[in-house]
Amino acid sequence: MLDPVRYPAAELAALYHQRWEIETAYYGLKVTLRGADRVLRSRTVDGVEQELYALLVLYQASRRAIAEAATTAHLDPDRLSLTTALHTARLTVITARTSDPAGLVSSLVHVRNLAPVRRRSRTSPRCVKRTLSPYAYNKTKGSVGHKTTVTTDVTLLTSTASP
Fold first, then answer.
1. Please, which residues have CB within 8 angstroms of residue 63's CB and are 6 or more apart in sequence?
2. Where are the alpha helices (DSSP H) in the chain?
3. Where do the domains of the chain lie?
4. Distance between CA 121 and CA 85 in Å, rounded?
5. What InterPro entries does the annotation carry (predicted)?
6. Other C-beta atoms within 10 Å of 69: how many?
7. How far apart are CA 19 and CA 130, in angstroms?
């Protein structure tokens, strides 16, 4: 990957960005959909398998609705929020005035229901989170933003050569 002709920097940067979009999708499946503190409730292998398939079906249906809404609005599907799609789906099912699946989907995929106003900027640099500890944290260790101003005076000494 050190060959700049074979692996252009712009292409690698785009792939890196896409990788983080995929990581965000995995996060959506594991945390947003299932819940961070929830465990699978089944006590049998078949039950766990059924729960996993149900989560995957719900995730796929949500992502498909997001993709349809994004296509309609000419947006990138990664710009639409999975959390908002899940909340909209719950509200749509709860307050449904029709049992027609097409009517439910059409109200869900309306892009104004799913599109965030704008993506938030990163507020902190990427770093490894520190573990929780009852002891005080040494802030000087591994400090990223530490700056020191150094002033240096240089004096040139010239010597006169004597024969």
1. 25, 77, 82
2. 9-27, 45-73, 82-94, 101-108, 111-114
3. 9-114
4. 21
5. RNaseH-like_sf, Transposase_11
6. 22
7. 24
Distance CA 116, CA 12 (A): 27
The Cα–Cα gap between 24 and 105 comes to 24
Location of structure tokens 């349809």: 68
Tell me the three state secondary structure of residue 97: coil
Is residue 47 very low, low, confident or very high in pLDDT (cuts 50, 70, 90)? Answer: very high
Kindly report the pTM of this predicted structure: 0.55
Q: What is the mean pLDDT of residues 104-108?
A: 62
Note whether 77 and 70 are within 8 A (CB).
yes
Residue 46, pLDDT score? 95
The per-residue pLDDT for range 134-147, each reduced to its tens digit, is 877 766 665 555 56
Which residue shows structure tokens 């240096």?
152
Instruction: Please give the Cα distance from 89 to 85 (Å, whole number).
Output: 6
